[in-house]
């Protein structure tokens, strides 16, 4: 019998951390990632990093004008996004809201349409 209670034994295996096995990083076309409003040119594409480097806080991106950044993240093929990790220091310098749009290549701020977002947190 499969039992997931404390001290129980189950009939299938659990891995401590499957996240790197399912990372989409290898499918990101990092050379063509574009970040609009970044204060340092090229800094936006560097924040996409392998899972094992996710805690490296020396690589970050900041907005140059206002509080908004827009990333265009092309993939090398079809992918299914299951989760996203956004990390930052414990202060006011992190996103308070994130919107994800699919199949909108080369998007600009003028293209933003609230009715087409797929995830908003």
Q: How would you characterize this protein structure?
A:
Mean pLDDT is 80; it is low at 1-9. This protein has one domain. Helix content is 3%, strand content 8%. The chain is largely without helices or strands. The longest helix has 4 residues, at 43-46. It has 1 helix and 4 strands. The strands form 2 sheets. Strands 1-2 form a two-stranded antiparallel sheet. A two-stranded antiparallel ribbon has the order 3-4. One of its GO terms (cellular component) is cytoplasm. This is PITH domain-containing protein. It comes from Schistosoma japonicum. Residues 13-121 form the PITH domain. Belongs to the PITHD1 family.
Structural class: little secondary structure
How are helices and strands ordered from N to C? EHEEE
Percentage of residues in DSSP E strands:
5-15%
What's the end-to-end separation, in Å? 38 Å
Output the radius of gyration.
18 Å
The tally of strands reads: 4
Percent helix: under 10%
Describe the sheet with the most strands: 2 strands, antiparallel
The geometry reads as globular
Extract low-pLDDT stretches: 1-9
Q: What's the total helix number?
A: 1
Q: What's the mean pLDDT score?
A: 80
How many domains make up the 3D coordinates? 1
Characterize this entry briefly.
The protein is low in regular secondary structure and 121 residues long. The chain has one helix at residues 43-46, and strands spanning 34-36, 70-72, 99-100, 119-120. It starts with 33 loop residues before the first strand and ends with a strand.
Features:
single chain, 121 residues, little secondary structure, two-stranded antiparallel ribbon, 4 strands, globular, disordered N terminus
């Amino acid at each position: 019998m499969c039992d997931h209670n404390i001290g129980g034994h189950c009939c299938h295996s659990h891995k401590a951390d499957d996240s790197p096995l399912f990372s989409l990083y290898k499918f990101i076309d990092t050379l063509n990632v574009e970040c609009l409003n970044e204060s340092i040119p090229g800094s936006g594409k560097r924040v996409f990093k392998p899972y094992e480097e996710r805690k490296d806080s020396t690589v970050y991106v900041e907005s140059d004008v206002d509080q908004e950044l827009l990333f265009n993240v092309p993939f090398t093929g079809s992918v299914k996004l299951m989760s996203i990790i956004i990390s930052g220091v414990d202060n006011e310098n992190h996103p308070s809201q994130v919107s994800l749009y699919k199949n909108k290549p080369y998007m600009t701020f003028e293209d933003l349409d609230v009715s087409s977002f797929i995830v908003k947190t």
